[in-house]
Specification:
alpha+beta, three-stranded antiparallel sheet, 11 strands, four-stranded antiparallel sheet
């Protein structure tokens, strides 16, 4: 055993073929093993100096950034917040998806604005939508903020906050005209869909794909009703899937949305056409009007309808169409905002695409 330093606070001894250093000073204990005795002595002098000047604890915390990778931070963040997530399966997928990128293998000490900006530009060059890239950066930002506030991980600042956000693509008004709308409703009422092409078992990594030339798939029995209902009510997809019989008051023409995107339950009005769609549906085993296993499952049926109807449209844009329908019928902005559950006017304005023909009609009515 060898003691070094004036106060003999550090001890070096042989331990299983290596040199073990123990430093005890001012009620602080530090230990580490080295292959060479010279390295052990240098480390002991350095640690004693840091303890003496009061820098040891600060330096030790900063060194943790050289031990924690981004992927490990994402796992910690997921474990701490999954219980509060509205969509835990989707949250888990987003975390695991981000962990596949090279940036997830970096240590937190390496994560800076330059690395994040390069990651942003790389994803945009690969064709990722700006909104998707923002989700990646947002997930990293949330994990870093959680680490700073509650996990005692010494992140001095959040570099994501300094990275310029990618510009959103120009919004495209995909409101369907009357012809396309009727075509969409027609194909949503089909008895079956033709599914041709090569199919692959999800458990197959390699192998010959099987070809099914005349395979058919039965549609959802409520596809037509859910399309009309979504446009009539301005409800979000998740809100529609969770709507149950006890939430609807057919006498007063209202419905209570208990699980909303912004966590604020609200009561909305139902048009006669919307209530007609609900009345036409058979009862389900769990009381939901539109019992679907998952959003992913519904999207598969939705894509088949769009394919056969030959329209470029997504389900959420039915909410756009409904908002514009109400504005054209004379509803005020405040009334539309209450029906759709938008918290701010700015959020609502993203959905309003008032056509020039409607504006010209209003001017003619004014004289």
């Amino acid at each position: 055993m060898v003691a070094i330093g004036k106060g003999k606070m550090a001890h070096i001894r042989k331990h299983h073929g290596k040199w073990l250093v123990n430093v005890r000073k001012k009620k602080i204990v530090a230990r580490k093993t080295f292959l060479r005795k010279g390295d052990a002595s240098k480390w002991a002098y350095k640690i004693e100096a840091q303890i003496e000047t009061g820098q040891y604890l600060t330096v030790k915390k900063q060194e943790r950034l050289n031990e924690i990778r981004v992927c490990e931070l994402l796992d910690i963040f997921y474990d701490k917040t999954k219980a509060k997530s509205k969509h835990p399966r989707r949250f888990e997928y987003e975390v695991n998806h981000l962990k596949r990128y090279k940036i997830a293998n970096l240590y937190l000490s390496q994560l800076d604005t330059k690395i994040l900006a390069e990651f942003r530009d790389e994803q945009l060059e690969k064709g990722k939508a700006p909104s998707t890239v923002m989700k990646y950066l947002g997930l990293i930002s949330r994990a870093l903020n959680k680490a700073r506030r509650e996990l005692d991980i010494p992140v001095s600042f959040n570099p994501v906050s300094l990275v310029e956000k990618p510009k959103e693509r120009p919004k495209v008004d995909r409101t369907l005209d009357e012809e396309k709308w009727l075509r969409l409703i027609e194909h949503a009422s089909k008895i079956n869909f033709e599914v041709s092409g090569k199919l692959k078992n999800q458990h197959m990594k390699e192998g010959k794909l099987t070809h099914y030339p005349n395979r058919k798939r039965r549609p959802l029995y409520f596809m037509k009703q859910i399309i009309i209902f979504a446009r009539e009510t301005l409800m979000r997809q998740g809100e529609i899937f969770n709507l149950r019989k006890q939430d609807v008051d057919f006498l007063n023409g209202t419905a209570i949305i208990r699980k909303a995107k912004n966590d604020d339950p609200r009561k909305i009005g139902l048009s006669p056409l919307a209530m007609e769609q609900l009345r036409s549906l058979p009862p389900s085993y769990d009381g939901r009007f539109f019992p679907i296993k998952s959003r992913h499952s519904f999207d598969g049926y939705w894509r088949l309808v769009l394919r056969d109807a030959k329209v470029d449209f997504n389900f959420h844009q039915l909410r756009h169409m409904g908002a514009n329908d109400l504005i054209k019928s004379g509803w005020s902005i405040a009334e539309v905002q209450a029906q759709g559950g938008w918290k701010t006017l700015k959020a609502l304005q993203r959905y309003l695409h008032i056509q020039a023909e409607h504006l010209a009609k209003k001017l003619r009515e004014r004289g």
